[in-house]
Amino acid sequence: MERETLLTLLLILFGGLALQPLAALRSWPGHENVTRAGESRAWLRLWLPVIPTLVIGAWLCGWALQAPDPVRLPLGRTVIALACMPFALVALRALLRAIWVLLREPTDLPVCTVGLLRPRIIFSPFLARNLETRLLRAAWEHELAHARHHDPLRIWLAQIATDLQWPWPPAGRRFAAWLETLEWARDDEARSRGVAGTDLASALVAVARHGASVARNGASRWEATSDAPLVGAGTQSLEARISRLLLPPSNEVGMPPPDRHGGITTAMVLAGIALAACALGAMDGSAVLSPFLAWTWAV
Ligand SMILES: [Zn+2]
Predict the structure, then answer these.
(1) Which residues are found with C-beta within 5 Å of the ion, ligand 1?
(2) Which residue in 24, 54, 44 sits closest to 178, CA to CA?
(3) Number of folded domains in the chain?
(4) Least CB-packed of 126, 137, 166, 186 within 10 Å?
(5) pLDDT tens-digit readout, 204-213
(6) Which tens digit of pLDDT belongs to each residue from 98-127?
(7) How far is the CA of 183 from the centre of ligand 1 (A)?
(8) Distance 151 CA to ligand 1 centre (A)
(9) Rounded to whole angstroms, how far apart are CA atoms 75 and 61?
(10) How far is the CA of 227 from the centre of ligand 1 (A)?
(11) What DSSP element (H or E) covers 120?
(12) How far, in Å, is the centroid of ligand 1 from the Cα of 181?
């Protein structure tokens, strides 16, 4: 079998074997009642089950760097392909949904931030004409916070991570919990820039009354989106959010913006782990994989 073909099959097989049991764990999700810290923790919880798969993938890539090509397998191509099939179907579903989000029609949400690489804010002309200036500013600041953090891209990536953990419900709950804390965090960021909580709450009610808001909870199972809306969750979540906005600002409101280098640091740590795993795979990949697959090398 060609080395690259075998690498792809092993990535799917071992990646799926590592990810699926972690996806089913119920201890991962958490529902935070804090704002920025809660959003960061919910984001981390969403990705933690995926990290071992990324490390295994890097290790396999390291193995492939020094493996001969082609590779002869006593087990045969069919056996490995069949073992990969369930995980391959999950990965294919995730890929198709991710592509669908990129190719779908423009959003019909009245107020939202769209665009994976260059976020831009969409505002319904009807609302722009009829909302009071202070409510317009409140909604605008909320969406500006989404744009500053590139939330459409983050939502798209989080949806892919969640889809790779299909069909386990805890993964969906982690995604929903993160989306909720994301909205709270952006509300707080808007308030930290001088927006009154009552104005933002009024803007939420106005947009909800506009009737064109699309509740994520009501979306079909296939439907996915990367849009970061002003009102995007179910009625219960909206009520809780408005109640929260009517309370005095939390201690975090008014604090300086969160450290943006935190994400870069995390990415660098993950890249370092991946590089180490890749080097380890190049050194001892054959020794570990050979007994597992009981293969022999051939040129
Ligand atoms: Zn929002």
Answers:
(1) 183, 186
(2) 44
(3) 1
(4) 126
(5) 999 888 865 4
(6) 999 988 876 778 899 999 999 999 988 888
(7) 5
(8) 9
(9) 21
(10) 9
(11) strand 120-123
(12) 10
